[in-house]
């Protein structure tokens, strides 16, 4: 009864000082927004997948943050205060210091905060005071949504995620800020108490609020590159940056020179281009973080619909930052057979009980492809370290399943997370079985048969969430071609011109004799349980919408009609 009464009170307190006839009420999750009929403020229904995934990650982050805080307090109570080391630089915190509510703090500050006129005692009073101070509850998380538009995302964070104390929504468009404030009032006192909206340039705001937010969310219309430098500075140590990029035409190789100017990496137009887009974005964020002695740890990276979305935690450490070259690689892709090879940017050598950093050995490939004799294109650098934390993925998936009714896009995000949970985490990029078969002009083996051959050869293989036909494996390319040569012997192809890549590959005898007997591990757990991993779009024209203020012209109507045929 109390909950029902509270809900009624909230509805009564909603601002209705405007004519509702001019607006459409849109409900998503627990939030409601008012959308004007003139499309004055941008709203994209398709991004419900994005918002649901972000809420799922945010809930796991809040839980993880609490666990880490409790663990830190337990360690500090056990060890007690330490004498500060004068040799420690002011610019870099001591190794055992802990980031607490936006500031580095390590026990000495707690002692300094005690009153100086208190007499020293050997009875343990200072230690008791220290422990009482240490046991303060963790302050609720502060969230910054840098590009809020209608404020729907910020409203859902404030209303649906427990443990959030404040959500700051920014926009540099006056109409959007007015709409956001109107929606905040429309959602009642809970939203009003947690959410505030400002008319400001997100870049300036984040630069003037360094290390103040536990969560920073960037979801721009297009490229986030303009906001990354200030975003990595505004996140507290151990905080999380959630970043979307919708300019996939650029990131996937449509305009390589534009991608290089925005992200500092050159893309390649392979079947793995969408995963490469994720890795280019991660490498770019890492580059910006490194300028401020910070580094990133990806917990989840997804490609859905028409965009890529990454969730990375940000830490400060001048020493750990040196490992960045070990996480980056250049990519060589054959122009004939689409084989690809990675060239790490850096390497380390252990010498005299220390680790020394050196440039990576190269070249990773000869001038011409050893399989088909064609030249290579070079792309990158890309992030070649893992793009997911599988423990986080498992925790997020479990949380989503336990709160199914709270996710409007439950089916889609559950399918994506399930596919991610089965990926090989340490294998960058992937192969396309259909693309390999097209190179040889042969019938394609089924995924189960091909997986079995790879497993029987002693290698690992998995699917990828990016492409239902993609396969990740640690088998080298010459082994892959040997398996396909054995396949073609049992399934002959028509003769092709000798100068084609497929003919040159088939002209060589296989070194490995493939075993196509079905392997037990050729089926993933999701496949064995018949769990859906790739779902169709819920409706026609499911994709990016028009910018705010734009109208659907005849040209756009003709284009949509053409796509619908």
TrEMBL record:
Annotated PROSITE patterns: SAM_MT_TRM1
Alphabetical list of InterPro entries matching this protein: SAM-dependent_MTases_sf, Trm1, tRNA_met_Trm1_C
Domain of life: Eukaryota
Bilayer-crossing regions: none
A Gene Ontology biological process term: tRNA N2-guanine methylation
EC number, UniProt record: 2.1.1.216
UniProt keyword annotations, A-Z: Metal-binding, Methyltransferase, RNA-binding, S-adenosyl-L-methionine, Transferase, tRNA processing, tRNA-binding, Zinc
Full protein name: tRNA (guanine(26)-N(2))-dimethyltransferase
Lineage per the UniProt record: Eukaryota, Viridiplantae, Streptophyta, Embryophyta, Tracheophyta
Gene behind the chain: LOC107831243
